[in-house]
Specification:
Strand order of the largest sheet: 2-1-4-5-3-6-7
Structural class: alpha+beta
Radius of gyration: 14 Å
Largest sheet: 7 strands, antiparallel
Helix content: 25-40%
Oligomer: single chain
Shape: globular
Distance between the termini: 6 Å
Length: 145
């Protein structure tokens, strides 16, 4: 999102809102949609004793498609960062309603505040991430301007 043209932002926002963010939780998958409350997610936050989460991918920075190899390499780098930060996370996958864009390997990270989450998204070149708090609505959090 180097060019923060309003129409570009609108198109990106529509694409992110037309995506299901799937968390691979131990008790079964949890589906997240921007703007829709999910009580299962609140229960998961309680299990981790945190009140916030961020759903982040390292794949396809700035919505530019990379090779599968490059995306896996970036995901491995993000996992290494999360291990160094010693933060809890679970695997996830972002799946757009538009099947032309391939699913993206992702993670849900527990206990980050807004700015920490935004920094990780920006570090991996993401236009935006999905962020939420217990009993709140998942929201789009822009990372690049």
């Amino acid at each position: 999102m180097q060019n923060n043209d309003y129409s570009t932002i609108e198109v990106l926002a529509q694409a992110y809102e037309a995506t299901t963010y799937r968390v691979k939780a131990p008790e079964g998958d949890i589906l997240i949609r921007i703007g829709l409350h999910n009580p299962e997610l609140d229960l998961l936050l309680n299990q981790y004793n945190v009140d916030s989460w961020a759903f982040i991918t390292a794949w396809n920075p700035a919505s530019v498609a990379l090779s599968l190899f490059q995306n896996h390499q970036r995901h491995t780098e993000m996992l290494a960062l999360l291990h160094r930060m010693n933060v809890p996370y679970l695997d996830g996958i972002g799946m757009g309603d538009d099947t032309d864009w391939p699913p993206e390997q992702s993670v849900i990270i527990f206990g980050l505040n807004r700015e920490e989450a935004r920094k990780i998204g920006a570090l991996f070149g993401q236009n935006a991430i999905v962020y939420g708090e217990c009993n709140g609505l998942p929201e789009l959090l822009w990372c690049l301007t």
